[in-house]
Amino acid sequence: MLQQVMTAPGKIEFREIPTPEPQPGEALIKIMKIGVCGSDIHVYHGEHPFTSYPVTQGHEVSGLVEKLGEGVTTLTVGQKVTIQPQVVCGECYPCRHGKYNLCESLKVMGFQTTGVASEYFAVDAKKVTPLPEDMSLDEGAMIEPLAVAVHAVRRAGDVTGQDICVLGAGPIGILVAQAAKGMGARRVMVTDVSSLRLDKAKECGADFCINTKEKDFGEALTECFGPDKADVIYDCAGNNITMGQAIAHARKGSAIILVAVFAGQASVDLAVLNDHELDLNTSMMYRAEDYAAAIELVNQGKVSLAPLISKHFAFKDYLEAYKFIDENRESTMKVIINVQAT
Known about the structure:
Layout: E1 2-8, E2 11-16, E3 26-35, H1 38-44, E4 60-68, E5 80-83, E6 86-87, H2 93-96, E7 107-108, E8 120-124, E9 128-130, H3 137-141, H4 143-154, E10 163-167, H5 171-182, E11 187-192, H6 195-203, E12 208-211, H7 217-225, E13 232-235, H8 240-249, E14 255-258, H9 270-275, E15 279-282, H10 288-299, E16 309-314, H11 318-327, E17 334-338
Parallel strand pairs: 10-11, 10-13, 11-12, 13-14, 14-15, 16-17
Antiparallel strand pairs: 1-2, 3-4, 3-8, 3-17, 4-5, 5-9, 6-7
Helix pairs in contact: 4-5, 4-10
């Protein structure tokens, strides 16, 4: 079978290796679709701090169960599935208390351990999540980033009836906005400096889309939600400008959730944070319950994934996919790799 390997930043090879045989407790998955994540682009540029080379990438995935190892009874051959890409120890404090997304020895497929970018992939069956038969394989490959959004929304507790602000209209920001509305939020405001991205957020159901190059964030927050402003602000851009906006203009006593991987060293106004008794919280990946909720949101029609798919590339054109993203950063949302013909 073919396996993708990034041998160095910007360099991808394809190697012919034996198709793995599933061991007891494992499932062999025929990989169909892989989504390209912003973190994959960091690896492509040699800018990911926790990834060394060579590395086989891929962690947003959909596929079909090809074969089952001894003892696996939770899956059936031919079933549509996705994979949770975390590799955890199961022994540290977070793991023992159900928070394995915070494992002290966390590894993620495609970064610190082998990713799914091959024609077949053998994996612990416990990491395999079945997908509804009527869900497309493209949608299945986007359950992972949607689970990121679901987990982030849940970090603020129950958002039913609340007004939500999302800073950043990239794929995760738009998924957070959709997930929040799907989980009961009253209204959602999305900000960005790209009109193209804001148009996509509007297409995906955002109530207010604000270009902060053209409109003051604080004024927009009050105009959209009134003097009570937002109940929760999610920072899905992750830089000093957006976090500065959130802290400066959040309603006193409200919450800010950092979702994005923060770019560089943070310069946070702790005096205002303290004086306004703001809850500054963070979100890290997801757990199985977030995958289940993500699938249910798509099934119920509360989250639309298809509008976020920008382009497809063949498996052997992996490098071209990265080049396309680099050349079309503002207009590109999600690129999908077609590993095998459908």
